[in-house]
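Sample A.
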Amino acid sequence: MYSIILPTYNERDNLPLLVWMIDKYLGAANIQYEIVIVDDGSPDGTQEAAKQLAKIYSEDRIVLRPRPRKLGLGTAYLHGLKHAKGDHVILMDADLSHHPKFIPQMVAKMRSGSFDIVTGSRYEGEGCGVYGWDLRRKVISRVPIS
């Protein structure tokens, strides 16, 4: 089983579409999964949307593990890892910048060899690029930080 960790902050509008796409692509590929939603106290109703999604898709499939306030992306992933039940973990952003249609390809790549890590890139192969990003974000994405 795969645990997909989705940190959220003000993603009420994106979350239903993202969960639907994950279910569509992983269901078609017969990949077992859970989605661990780590919400950092979003004031826009993200947690309520997640609760509704858990009712629709089941609480075994949609696992809400909220935090009281915005504590940062890295710690949100760590919080999600503590609650993940899967044998493998997928880290995604909930802002729709990571398209779920690529997950089955990444799972197939992992299964084709003895890979511990498989990662996607916006700049290689079928990567989605950086459409709509401002210059600052493009530079941050390209320039290695040491």
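Sample B.
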Amino acid sequence: MSAPRVWFITGASSGFGKSMTELVLQKGDSVIATLRKPTMIDDLVAKYPKERLLVLQLDVTKPDDVAAAFAKAKEAYGRIDVVFNNAGRMSLGELESMGDKAARDMMEVNFWGAAHVSREAVKFFREVNGPKVGGLLMQVSSRAGIVGNPGGVYYSASKFALEGLTESLVKELNPEWNIKVTMVEPGPFRTKLASDNIILEEQHPAYADPSAPGSAFRQYIVSSNVDGDADKAVVVMEKLSHVPNPPLRLPLHRRTIAGIKDKAQSLTKDVEEYGSWSDDVYFTE
């Protein structure tokens, strides 16, 4: 049996964050649970001692607060084995339906917040844990970070940005640091993010037809047709955290898998059809 580990979890109030917090505590691990409203997990505080569960108020959009949370984690536990970078928000609307403020607010959390946590995680793994311990940064991305969704244009943009940051980050890391990074790409799962916490922006009249792609996506994402079980999903994610050399990506849901396959075929088709157009675009001596 492996020794208990220490998890740093953002967005621990609901969804994957709450489910993961509950799961790893049940398994005997310790958790630094961060969230905007600590009272949201008073049930867990009442159940577990402070030695096992450290609850910190955190707004991931504030980089100084993120750094302070990692400092408190170091003081309390001396190490972090897994950072579960999960905090996020979802506002849905077509490009013409969503105002700049709503879009920027979502980008602040889904991209900049995740970037702040990623930066502190890498620094902590390298400078506090050292290569003997290393660490795993688990980014909670989305199918929408691989395949754009109609009616979720800015949400997809925020997750695409996170994917780009993460791919580039992995290439920057010195293998000797023993830092592992995986992007988890869930499809549609029933979580509070896609129910109580979802924000549906008022539709532009041009897109209001119920049969339009954006309208259909809105209807689907808040319906009982969303068949992914968040509690079962985090069991798979936790299993991944034990893999010595985890993959860069973990697609999670049949819709994610199908979407990636379709996109790969589309990219290949475009390259095969138009790749030769690049033959004569170079300087010649």
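B remarks: The chain has a mean pLDDT of 95. The longest strand covers residues 179-186.
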